[in-house]
Write a structure and sequence with these properties.
Order of helices and strands: HHEHEHEHEHEHHHHEHEEHEHH
Largest sheet: 5 strands, parallel
Strand order of the largest sheet: 2-1-3-4-5
Number of helices: 14
CATH class of the largest domain: Alpha Beta
Shape: globular
CATH topology of the largest domain: Rossmann fold
Structural class: alpha/beta
Length: about 350
């Protein structure tokens, strides 16, 4: 395929210029962080509730803070939150649209069991914003995007700012640095640049069934990559965490190997030893795999840069399969059938 064909595909299928949303991620992250409040007081327990990209935001915050700081974080992607988890916690309800039915229900049920001064809402609009105004809850409004999944940078920026005191003043410089890195990465992966990393990943996946592999600290990246292949490219895919995969997943490559499967190994620089047995085994079996090393000076930078890379790859994959990445007809169909009783 010639590059002019890719350019023509963008013009033909991406009527809303959805890929262009990623050029804004750096500025969106920075602006959301600067314009959001910080919780003042004890922060030892946090509960985050949200679905889809909002839920991934919770995962990012959990893995970023919980392993490095003295803080207990629970993420719920459901209609309910266990009451005992709310006691003494900060509750952050995240919904880009403000109309996510599961998040609304979970928040409603939680308000009778928590100090309202410790409740935050992160949204653009909708029912959640109205709830915040009616009940006097701290509501953080973020910029709109063409789709909720494109708003991840704002969600992360606002949520981490609420918990800024856990990290301290160094977080200000870290977010500024990451914002600049995201801006530069998006330009490098944009369609103006031939043979960029995001397109190369999409090209390798094209016609295959992707399996995203990574360690537990890469879980938010793996879950997001799978979700964006679903939402943007409208294709199947899944993920597995290692070393857990050595105890189950690896067996699928023993006999009758499906040539459609494509393992994609997403790793940090210091994770070569973890994946060496996997790579050696795949090479002995002559199974093609694709390795995606991602760098970052901090966990938050690593995760956001990896997500941006793989998000943009999923949009290129939509182009290659001649699909408009923006609409999510099946999701909207099912959401329209859901009701709060």
């Amino acid at each position: 395929m010639k590059w002019r064909d890719v350019l023509e595909l963008k013009e033909k299928v991406d009527k809303s210029n959805f890929m262009d949303e990623y050029l804004k991620w750096g500025s969106w992250l920075n602006r959301a962080y600067k314009s959001s409040p910080t919780h003042r007081g004890d922060i030892s327990k946090v509960v985050i509730v949200g679905m889809g990209g909002s839920g991934i935001t919770g995962d990012i915050i959990k893995y970023y803070l919980e392993y490095e700081y003295d803080i207990d974080i629970h993420v719920y992607k459901d209609w309910r939150i266990p009451r005992h988890k709310l006691q003494g916690s900060i509750l952050i309800a995240i919904s880009f649209s403000g109309n996510t039915i599961e998040t609304i229900k979970a928040l409603e049920e939680s308000l009778n069991h928590i100090d309202l001064n410790t409740v935050y809402i992160v949204t653009t609009d909708g029912t959640l914003e109205k709830m915040g105004l009616e009940k006097g809850l701290k509501t953080v409004k973020i910029d709109r995007a063409l789709a909720p999944r494109a708003g991840l940078a704002q969600l992360v920026g606002s949520t981490i700012k609420i918990l800024r005191d856990v990290v301290g003043e160094t977080l200000d410089n870290e977010v500024a640095r990451i914002s600049s890195a995201l801006e530069n990465d998006a330009k490098r992966y944009y369609i103006d640049n031939k043979d960029n990393r995001a397109f190369n990943i999409a090209f390798h996946i094209w016609g295959r069934y992707p399996i995203f592999y990574g360690t537990s600290r890469s879980y938010p990246v793996l879950a997001r990559a799978k979700a964006m292949v679903n939402e943007n490219a409208k294709l199947s895919g899944y993920y597995q965490v290692y070393p857990e995969g050595y105890h189950n997943e690896i067996e699928i490559f023993d006999e009758q190997i499906d040539p459609v499967l494509l393992p994609l190994i997403i790793r940090w620089d210091d994770e070569e030893d973890i994946f060496r047995p996997l790579k050696e085994f795949l090479e002995e079996k002559e199974i093609e795999y694709y390795e995606i090393p991602v760098q970052g000076k901090s966990y938050l930078e690593y995760v956001l840069r990896a997500i941006l890379l793989l998000d943009m790859a999923s949009i290129y994959l939509a182009y290659l399969t001649r699909r408009d990445p923006l609409p999510t007809k099946a999701i909207n169909n099912v959401k329209g059938r859901m009701r709060i009783e």
